[in-house]
């Protein structure tokens, strides 16, 4: 039976104390769109409630044996004052937190934001246990710059469905870097997992949320033998699709969902990833070709 992009994520159990059998070689935590702000709820976005949800998520992840945790962007809705409130929530974690920049985060100011998040650059990569992890900045090209505004105007003229200021692009320089990074990973026989705030495949989200340069980026990702999965946030409803043997997952936004629905662990096994809720065995298998 095939899985729809909603049922894939919806089938994961909530937090619990179910026992796990065995330990994977590598695991990491992942969450998206905390989007905390000290302001009233708007629609389904419970801005103030995100603090309690994040604290619950962190408490659950803290009981796991993780190498690191990835925060997929839109940590705050806007403003440094909100950043001051939400960043301390990660302190109980005993592992590094890898931050991804989202569109809402940029309202806090790029230079200060990078410093506060401890990032030397908005996009970067790192390796753990012979795996390459690639963190991308989907707002490197954005409507605040002249080139970004021109790009957005071109997309609107072409009636592209992702022609919105809340989207952005990797831009040419980052795409060159991405291609070289994946080439380097492949040369070292590394599998790669990519993280970005924005989706790159419409089937895993909606066209309205795609990167501006999603076609160019997707071509780079699919042309390399290294990528196994792409994780993103941005579309709070979540989603999943697979293409060319690569898994594309959109994590549900914490600002609109419970902690149980928006907090996950990714286990890395030979030949498969497993996406599950903290404290639970089982989960959703994501197979990939294991190295010979």
Characteristics:
292 residues; Purple Acid Phosphatase, chain A, domain 2; six-stranded mixed β-sheet; 7 helices; alpha/beta; single chain
Q: What can you tell me about this protein's structure?
A:
- With 292 residues, this protein is an alpha/beta fold.
- The protein has a single domain (5-11, 26-284), classed as Purple Acid Phosphatase, chain A, domain 2.
- It is built from 7 helices and 12 strands.
- It has helices at 5-10, 50-62, 80-86, 110-117, 146-157, 171-187, 214-223; strands at residues 26-31, 68-71, 97-99, 124-128, 131-135, 191-195, 227-232, 239-243, 246-250, 263-269, 272-276, 284-287.
- A 6-stranded mixed beta sheet has the order 3-2-1-10-11-12, with no helix packed on it. It has a 6-stranded mixed beta sheet with strand order 4-5-6-7-9-8.
- A hairpin with a 7-residue loop joins strand 11 and strand 12.
- Helix 6 packs parallel to helix 7.
- The protein is globular, with a radius of gyration of 18 Å.
- The model is unreliable at 17-21 (pLDDT under 50).
């Amino acid at each position: 039976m095939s899985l729809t992009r909603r049922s894939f994520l919806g089938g994961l159990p909530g937090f619990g104390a179910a026992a796990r059998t065995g330990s994977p070689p590598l695991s990491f935590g992942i969450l998206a769109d905390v989007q905390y702000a000290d302001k009233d709820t708007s629609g389904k976005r419970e801005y103030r409630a995100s603090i309690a949800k994040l604290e619950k998520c962190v408490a659950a992840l803290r009981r796991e044996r993780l190498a690191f945790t990835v925060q997929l962007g839109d940590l705050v809705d806007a403003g440094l004052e909100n950043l001051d409130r939400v960043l301390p929530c990660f302190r109980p974690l005993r592992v590094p937190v890898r931050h991804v920049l989202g569109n809402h985060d940029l309202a806090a100011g790029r230079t200060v934001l990078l410093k506060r998040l401890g990032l030397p650059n908005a996009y970067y990569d790192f390796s753990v246990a012979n795996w390459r992890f690639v963190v991308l900045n989907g707002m490197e090209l954005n409507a605040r710059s002249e080139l970004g505004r021109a790009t957005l105007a071109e997309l609107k003229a072409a009636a592209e469905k992702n022609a919105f200021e809340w989207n952005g692009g990797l831009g040419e320089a980052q795409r060159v870097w991405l291609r070289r990074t994946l080439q380097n990973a492949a040369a070292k026989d590394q599998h790669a997992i990519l993280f970005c705030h924005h989706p790159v495949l419409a089937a895993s989200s909606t066209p309205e949320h795609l990167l501006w340069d999603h076609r160019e980026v997707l071509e780079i990702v699919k042309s390399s033998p290294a990528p196994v999965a792409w994780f993103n946030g941005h579309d709070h409803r979540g989603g999943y699709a697979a293409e060319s043997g690569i898994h594309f997952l959109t994590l549900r936004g914490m600002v609109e969902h419970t902690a149980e629905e928006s907090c996950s662990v990714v286990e890395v096994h030979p030949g498969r990833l497993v996406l599950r809720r903290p404290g639970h065995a089982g989960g959703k298998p994501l197979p990939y070709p294991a190295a010979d």
